[in-house]
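Example noted here:
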Amino acid sequence: IILPFLKKARLESIRHFSGVKIDRYLITALVERWRKEAHWFNFREGEWTSTLKDVAILTHLPIDGRAVCVSDHPLGDVGDMTSCQHLIYSVLGVQIPVKGNVDATDRLAPLRTNQVSITWLTKWMKNLNHPTKGGVPLAEESPEEVKEIYACVYLIGMIRGVFLPKKSNNLISCGWLEILLGNWDAMGELS
C-alpha cells in the first residue's frame, strides 16, 4: 500500500531490511580484522576494503544523486511553532508537545533543541493504527494522505531502528525528519 511512495524516493529495497538478523560472531570477527589506520579488513586471503559501491550492491540503496547532509542546527520558527513542530504537524497532522513529559514513562520532553524523542514518536506511531485512540487504520481504500503518513512513519521507523540505531540516545534530529517527511520526488534525488 505504501510501496508507491517508497518507489518515488528510490527506497523500495529497505522493506527487506526489517527482517535482517545481525550475526554477532561475524561482526566480532570483522571488528578484529579491521585495520583502522588503513581502512581495510585484513583476511588470510588478503586485504579487503569496503567501498560505497559494495554497500550499494548489498543494500540496493541509491548512491547517485545529492549527498544526504543532516544538520542539527535549528531551522527557525514558523508562527508560534518551531520549524520542527510545524514540519511534524504539516505532514503527520499531530501537535508535538514542547515542554513537559507526555506520561510517566517518558524521561525527556518530546521536543528538545531541534530533536524529537523517539519514545514519543514510537508511542504516537503505535496509536496511529488504533481507531479507539484517534488513529486511522491503513487499508487499500485509504485516502492518499493516510497512505503517505504511513509511508513517512515506516521510513522514520527504519531510520531509527535499522540505519541509525543509537540505543543510548533517544532523539532523532529534525534534520532527518525534514528529509523523511519532505517531498518524495526530492527524496528520490538523494544519494
